[in-house]
Design a protein that fits this description.
CATH class of chain B: Mainly Beta
Strand content of chain B: over 45%
Number of strands of chain A: 11
CATH topology of chain B: Immunoglobulin-like
Number of domains of chain B: 1
Distance between the termini of chain B: 41 Å
Order of helices and strands of chain A: EEEEEEEEEEE
Shape of chain A: globular
Number of helices of chain A: 0
Structural class of chain A: mainly beta
Distance between the termini of chain A: 31 Å
Structural class of chain B: mainly beta
Strand content of chain A: over 45%
CATH architecture of chain B: Sandwich
Helix content of chain B: under 10%
CATH superfamily of chain B: Immunoglobulins
Oligomer: heterodimer
Helix content of chain A: under 10%
Order of helices and strands of chain B: EEEEEEEEEEE
Chain lengths: 114, 112
């Protein structure tokens, strides 16, 4: 196992609702990246947090937002859920900012929007 | 734009044979590539990486080849085992230094 944990494992919401997903990074890792993985697709980068600041963002609307806490754990918040938000949400932690450091992925949270 | 794609969505091999999974990328400026393995119900697991100043890199039973001329990446798995059955993704480092761009994946099925 990678030492990266995510909660909850599964979640079912309805359109228009809001959801918060949580990620605990591997010990000592200060960088957390979030990815969305639709069924049968590769992960798509949402954003990255480094030392509590957003470091970069992919092509996702503002209703996708995040936080990183002083202990480097992180949250992904999605407002006004849409059916297309149904996916596996992955977080990955790395030792430092640059992607050239190996990213360790958690098992993901499976979100279903009805 | 940037894209990373795979030639074959599903690859079926006999146990003990060698497997080759291919990947094409479009961003000639990318200089770092990673192969991930994803088993059902799990997150992607790092297998091997390679930088653009290299053509080949070997790990335990795995080899990654990079052909920058044709922007092609491959993963070779020697003596494929049932435990190798999974979806394999290639990923590249995009224009930024923080973002990984993943391909859509190849499912490897190992026949006993």
């Amino acid at each position: 196992e990678t030492g990266v944990t995510q909660s909850p494992t599964h979640l079912i919401k309805t359109r228009g609702q809001q959801v918060t997903l949580r990620c605990s990074s591997q010990s000592g890792h200060n960088t957390v990246s979030w990815y969305q993985q639709a069924l049968g697709q590769g992960p798509q980068f949402i954003f990255q947090y480094y030392r509590e600041e957003e470091n970069g963002r992919g092509n996702f609307p503002p209703r996708f937002s995040g936080l990183q806490f002083p202990n480097y754990s992180s949250e992904l918040n999605v407002n006004a859920l849409e059916l297309d938000d149904s996916a596996l949400y992955l977080c990955a932690s790395s030792l430092e900012l640059a992607v050239l450091n190996e990213q360790f992925f958690g098992p993901g949270t499976r979100l279903t929007v009805l | 734009g940037e894209s990373v794609g795979l030639h074959l969505p599903t690859l079926s091999v006999q146990e003990g044979d060698n497997s080759i999974i291919n990947c094409a990328y479009s961003n000639s400026a990318s200089d770092y590539f990673i192969w991930y393995k994803q088993e059902s119900g799990k997150g992607p697991q790092f297998i091997i990486d390679i930088r653009s100043n290299m053509d080949k890199r070997q790990g335990q039973r795995v080899t990654v080849l990079l052909n920058k001329t044709v922007k092609h990446l491959s993963l070779q798995i020697a003596a494929t085992q049932p435990g190798d059955s999974a979806v394999y993704f290639c990923a590249e480092m995009g224009d930024s230094s923080y973002k990984l761009i993943f391909g859509s994946g190849t499912r490897l099925l190992v026949r006993p």
